[in-house]
Amino acid sequence: MRLARLDWALAAILGVLMIGASACGSSSSSTASSSPKTSIGNGEGQLNMVAWEGYAQPEWVKPFVAATGCQVHAKYAGSSDEMVTLMRQGGGNQYDMVSASGDASLRLIRGGNVQQMNVELVPEWSNFIPQLKSPSHNTVEGKHYGISLQWGPNTLLYNTKTVKPAPTSWQAIYNPQYRGLVTVPNNPIQIADAALYLSKTNPSLGITDPYELTEAQLGAAAALLKAQRPLIKKYWGLASDEIELFKNGDVAIGAAWPYQTNTLQADKVPVKDLIPVQGATGWADTWMLSSHAKHPNCAYKWVNWVSSPKVQAEQAISFGETPANTKACAYMEQIKKGSCTQYHANASAAYFETIKFWKTPVADCGNGKTDCTDYTKWQRKWTEITA
């Protein structure tokens, strides 16, 4: 399923106007204060959601609709900025839920756009890995503003027939050899990928966290991305955009999610992906409930459905990500032998800690200094880079 997306520039402008205090992530910002539901009633008949492409696949949506009577209407978003904009437009009552990543969830919480959720109404929550029970990107002052879903890395995707030898470094997407054959996400958070690369290749910059950048460090990352601009065939908005670029032979290498790799390999396109030697950024997604949700019972029924081990396994293998539910591993092995290990569902906590998960850049560097650049500055830089 592919739905139209907002033009990124419009989304960025709206995002700058709407972020305000929510982007700073300070404890003084507002959060939705209403108490969470204490029970799940009968479904209201429908559920309207904003989601990443691949999160509302027929394999688990159709059985959910049959079991609950909640008709699912999914709007796929191409970036976290677009998700925030969609969840705020029209007074915030157009969509019931959003599958927010860590660079959007706190903005939604601080903006009062999402409400507390009761983990007691989600029995499978007790089987989640410890890191995703109360993570800082969806739990504030002990209050849960969402239920963790899945997590995974951003990968380097390449055509095995065109790109030789096989790349091992992110340097490949900055290599003039591939001029006109590179694609990366049309998303300001892509600056973090450049910062991560520079933290390993130019340690004199002093980058220790790719989301906590001083003006000079942000400038260095932006300079790298501006130099990359002539190599770019297209900045992709939806995963399906990148899939079509690789299918048609328009590009040979780029930044991607495992979902694109799985889809392309299923269609016999000669591609592989990897986490380069410099490491990777990644996402840890959360289902969040709008403060103005019209169908909260269907929303809770959905969260329980997609939190179950079986559906967690189906989604993990379909998207190429790691489930939050530790019980999903056995089901993954039933669907595809070796997939539990392939997608790190049985990996130690150490692997989780190696991924630099998306988070909203804020002025507070977390080390007593406040000279880091906030997300508004990242958005402006990205507009300069892609112009």
Question: What descriptors fit this protein?
Answer:
single chain, 387 residues, alpha/beta, D-Maltodextrin-Binding Protein, domain 2, 2 domains, eight-stranded mixed sheet, globular, disordered N terminus
- What is the CATH C level class of the largest domain, in words? Alpha Beta
Order of helices and strands: HEHEHEHEEEEEEHHEHEHEEHHEHHHEH
How much helix, percentage-wise, in residues? 25-40%
Into how many domains do the coordinates divide?
2
Mean pLDDT: 91
β-strand percent reads 15-25%
- CATH architecture of the largest domain, by name, is 3-Layer(aba) Sandwich
Q: Outline, from the CA principal axes?
A: globular
Helical element count?
Answer: 14
Assign the CATH topology of the largest domain: D-Maltodextrin-Binding Protein, domain 2
The count of DSSP E runs of length 2 or more, i.e. the number of strands, is: 15
Low-confidence stretches: 1-30
CATH superfamily of the largest domain: Periplasmic binding protein-like II
Walk me through this protein's architecture.
The protein has 387 residues and is of the alpha/beta class. The protein has two domains: 26-152 and 284-347, D-Maltodextrin-Binding Protein, domain 2 (3-Layer(aba) Sandwich); 165-279 and 362-386, D-Maltodextrin-Binding Protein, domain 2, CATH 3.40.190. Helices cover 36% and strands 17% of the residues. The strands form three sheets. Strands 1, 2, 3, 4, 7, 13, 14 and 15 form an eight-stranded mixed β-sheet that branches. It is globular. The protein starts with 7 loop residues before the first helix and ends with a helix.
